[in-house]
Amino acid sequence: MSTQPIQPAVRHGEPLLAVRDLRVTFGRRGEEPFRAVDGVSFDVRPGQTVGLVGESGCGKSVTSLAIMGLLPTRGNTVEGTAVFDGEDLLSLSAQQMRDRRGADIAMIFQDPLSSLNPVIQIGRQVTEVMERHQGLSRKEAMPKAAELLERVGIPDPRARLANYPHQLSGGMRQRALIAMALACQPRLLIADEPTTALDVTIQAQILALLKDLVVETGTAMVMITHDLGVVAGLCDEVNVLYGGKIVERGTRHGLFARPRHPYTVGLLDSIPRLDAPRGEALSPIPGSVADNLPWDSACAFAPRCSNALDVCVEKTPAWEGDDVVGLRCFNPMGVSR
Ligand SMILES: Nc1ncnc2c1ncn2[C@@H]1O[C@H](COP(=O)(O)OP(=O)(O)OP(=O)(O)O)[C@@H](O)[C@H]1O
Ligand code: SF4
Ligand SMILES: [Mg+2]
Predict the structure, then answer these.
(1) Which residue has its alpha carbon closest to ligand 1 atom 25?
(2) For residue 117, what is the DSSP state?
(3) Alpha-carbon distance 242 to 219, whole Å?
(4) Which residues of 251-285 are buried (b: 16+ CB within 10 A; e: fewer)?
(5) How far is the CA of 59 from the centre of ligand 3 (A)?
(6) Residue 334: CB partners within 8 Å, gap ≥ 6?
(7) 124 with 183: CB under 8 angstroms?
(8) Exposed/middle/buried for residue 4 (C-beta within 10 Å: 0-12, 13-18, 19+)
(9) What's the CA-to-centroid distance between 252 and ligand 2, angstroms?
(10) Residue 277 reports pLDDT greater than 70
């Protein structure tokens, strides 16, 4: 991998992906439909890494699966637009979307084992992508697949090509999955918790690898994570999701230096700090998403919020901001009333 220094964030130019007012509603038999994603909008530019951050169940994966056209369609609705290079992905047919996936757009899924085919050798799985999208023969693709495995840090790549997924460790499998995503030279890469299942050292290696890629190739990346540590190391811009809505957006530096939304502050306070005095307790956010109020008539976070005002259980806080910085809160932190 390249050791060149990491370049500053690229913010100029048109977005490669512009998501607007994305809404995903799941129909549930005998129950009210459930809105998992509720009016999400964000942009990603070439060479930029944009984070989607939030606790389990806040709608991170559903957002990415909706953009990729991978949600089950029966009984569910996806609304809004996701314009990629001038074309609304949400209006494409299943076949057109299949052609985009793996060609211009690739995704690294949350669970590497379930995203690799257990009965097909790793080499074959990587070359298949190249045969399909680059028009290479299997013979031409094999050495390139070995090169890619080497690039993602898999030792002895030629031997690994013949392995089945279960013969690789968790870290190797995740790397193989990244190699497959790279095999199609995507312009947009969506990485959904690519390192959650891995130990800390491998996690750091894989994040560095992804960062290098974005810098070297100008790929636009959406990084989905519940871990603000990952955001700190990787993302240029961050969107904090709560209950299916973006509640705060900022640059990485702005958000860490001056978080405004009480939920963002809660997430930051629950990160273990190396410089904290030994034995100092972390402050996890009280309550759980099960306590959420409906966004239609309140701030969903109000039952868990130490800053809540009466208005927070009476009205929906509006989004105030733009595509770089923004906030959805009646009583932000650091603002006295
Ligand atoms: N196919 C589905 N049908 C019904 N509800 C779903 C479906 N997929 C997800 N959900 C619900 O949508 C909400 C958001 O789920 P999502 O998978 O996006 O969460 P997440 O933010 O990715 O969480 P995690 O960090 O655990 O991966 C959850 O309440 C989940 O139960
Ligand atoms: S709108 Fe109110 S309840 Fe919601 S986060 Fe802001 S202060 Fe807390
Ligand atoms: Mg998820």
Answers:
(1) 56
(2) -
(3) 27
(4) bbeebbeebbbbbbbbbeeeeeeeeeeeeeeeeeb
(5) 7
(6) 258, 260
(7) no
(8) exposed
(9) 22
(10) no
Residue type, 187: R
**Rounded CA separation 134/131 (Å):** 6
SS3 per residue for 224-239: EECCHHHHHHHCCEEE
- What are the pLDDT digits (tens) for 176-225? 888 888 887 889 999 998 887 677 777 887 888 888 888 888 899 999 99
Query: What is the number of the ligand 2 atom nearest to the C-alpha of 305?
Result: 8
**Measured in angstroms, how far is the CA atom of residue 289 from the centroid of ligand 3?**
14
Q: What is the pLDDT of residues 256-269, one digit of tens each?
A: 999 999 999 999 88
pLDDT of residue 205: 79
Give, as one character, the DSSP assignment of residue 116. S
Nearest CA to ligand 1 atom 2: 26
Query: What is the average pLDDT value for the chain, to the nearest integer?
Result: 87
